[in-house]
Design goal:
13 helices; 24 strands; alpha/beta; Ald_DH_C; 7-stranded mixed β-sheet; NAD; about 500 residues; binds 2-aminohexanedioic acid
Amino acid sequence: VKDFGIEKTLRNLGIKEENKGTSVGGKYFASGKVIESISPVDGKLIAKVKTSGESDYDKVIETAQKAFQEFRLIPAPKRGEMVRQLGLKLREYKDDLGKLVSYEMGKSLQEGLGEVQEMIDICDFAVGLSRQLQGYTMHSERPGHRMYEQYHPLGVVGIITAFNFPVAVWSWNTALAWICGNVTIWKPSEKTPLCAIACQNIMMEVLKENNLPEGVSSVLVSDHEIGQKLVDDKRVALVSFTGSTRVGRMVSSKVAERFGKSILELGGNNAIIITKEADIDMSIIGAVFGAVGTAGQRCTSTRRLIIHESVYDEVKTRLAKAYGQLKIGNPLDEKNHVGPLIDTDAVNQYEEAIKKCKKEGGKFVVEGGVLTGKDYESGCYVKPCVAEVKNSYEIVQHETFAPILYLIKYKTLEEAIAIQNDVPQGLSSAIMTQNLREAELFLSHAGSDCGIANVNIGTSGAEIGGAFGGEKETGGGRESGSDAWKYYMRRQTNTINYTAQLPLAQGIKFDL
Ligand code: UN1
């Protein structure tokens, strides 16, 4: 069996046989239980991690708070310089980190490298932004007065991330949080702790080389009880949470209860509408990549195809043919298109969803199933499948993190848009059409209700330059590009009187 150079990759990234899961700057704490990181690729133990315990938590928060006192005074463009250096390091470590992502999480090497590329891109974006944290100036109604607004850092930012993008989501949050003057504490998914440790090791080099306070970047590998502490902790000004709608609902209300801020990136139920005027070749590529890329474990994965009746049979036949050509196997081997699911729990959920779909009346055009035997020893490899369904099925309304694609037929575009919107989630959406009227209607206020709406592109693979996030049960948060940085700062309006009089606003007279 080829080992794809994993040993060397782990060494290069500073991953040991047993790692300490909490690191604040150069200090390590690990009084919690030991967890094992098992690769879904081959079912082998990659390394162990000693997690953080209760007693570590306060040390992390206190160090972070102390670091904030210092870090907020560093000019934003200088903080940008720190992020620039992280971007340079990520370029150096790209191959290793991409490989670790692929091996620990199971996505294809191409996609692992793509994820690291997203990290590099957001660093570049944040460097420029560090000179553009701009507020408005306004004209005061009072003579000799000046009004303007400015943005200040929040303090400690907590980042809770999911297994499916085990490195990129950290960097979308940290690159912005840092240039804005915040310090960060990352609670990664327990399913991908080594990716987090590798990122922290890289960031540590940057902090050391620049003599920056430890506590600017912390990692807290721990169970969900410690994650819950971050959510409840008044000292954590902003909680950025990526994960399920179920947990997100809890995070949202807990943080709101203490008047903290939150950014929520929750589930999606993303559809592509394929109209009668679609380029079918493009539609097939977009749909198949959207549905089977990352084994259907992106929050932007394509879950539903809403297809015009006149092209429905053609799309169905061609999809089945394309699925027949998919190669499933070790994601580090570039000849394979589809890697494993994250773990056997995910496999159970996949099987459960197929069962439910059949029970509700779904007809499978491409059958699913769990793969066994040589090269599939981890038990995490499944067949991407396609079913004809009604949008109203309970299982179709629900996000299953697996490569299951649902086909739905429509007659009018208005009906297609209504179907597309008729789910609880609102992350990503797309239309395949060469007709301007169809495209514009889809993008209009009467069109898609999602945070992302694309034309002639699939639902996944958003660029970092745009704001990323969605509506409804997706949580409403925005990360990454555009003006998402504003979430990481507090706004202050300043009015300055440079006269010797004190006129009051609204014309109020108050003479003593
Ligand atoms: C996610 O699945 O959590 O748009 C994020 C995409 C990627 C990000 C996905 N850039 O598919």
